[in-house]
Amino acid sequence: MEDLADVIQEFLRKGGKYLIVLDDVWSVETWEIIKNAFPENNKCNRVLVMTRDSGVAIYCNSIPHYLKFLIAEESWTLLEKKFFHNDKCPITLKLPGESIAKKCSGLPIAIALIAGALRKEKTTRHWERVNQTVAFPSGFQIPSWKLIRLWIAEGFIQYKRGSSLECKAEDNLNDLVNRNLLMVTTRTSDGKIKTCRVHDILHEFCRQEAMKE
């Protein structure tokens, strides 16, 4: 980490003005490590730190800028745009769509995640796999082998001629990653998913839905 910070610092020092955007900074400790990479060269540089932790925001800047939450109407408009693009939502889906948007608590990132998660797949089996993922605690790094074995044991993976259950489950795992339902945290030396986790906002959404079952 220190070597990387030195490389970044040297690169920025040789350049002109810079604007650095840091998204999803979770802790003061993380900021303390990262900020050492940014040289002070009196060129009016800027570092924009985005975080959901107000303590981190205040630590970085005593007068942080707080983004306002979307109201219900704005949340639905954003979800509709993310989901249907330039098309209008069918009348039969408007009420459940507005309900989903409301559950996002006015957070644009939550709305974007849910829209991406729901856009391509509307089957019960797909949501069962998602709900099964919520069996792990929020933020927990899930070993892919454990998740795959759990899916197979629960009967969520259907046998397909010419492909083993493990291969089919691995395809499903990659599909969830591609749809931003899961985030890869580590990979094996050959590029396969070793561990993954569910985004906190999506985890909470799925947990609440699972409790209704």
TrEMBL record:
Protein's membrane topology:
Peripheral membrane protein
Q: Which cellular compartments is it found in?
A: Membrane
The principal localisation class reads membrane
- Keyword Repeat in annotation: yes
Q: Span of the secretion signal? A: none
Among the GO molecular function terms of this UniProt record, one is: ATP binding
Limits of the Disease resistance protein winged helix domain = 136-205
Name a Pfam family for this protein. NB-ARC
InterPro entries according to UniProt: Apaf_helical (IPR042197), Disease_R_plants (IPR044974), NB-ARC (IPR002182), P-loop_NTPase (IPR027417), WH-like_DNA-bd_sf (IPR036388), WHD_DRP (IPR058922)
Task: Report the residue ranges that make up the NB-ARC domain in this protein.
Answer: 4-88
Q: Which family, according to the similarity comment? A: Belongs to the disease resistance NB-LRR family.
Name the UniProt record assigns to this protein: Uncharacterized protein
The scientific name of the source species is: Anisodus tanguticus
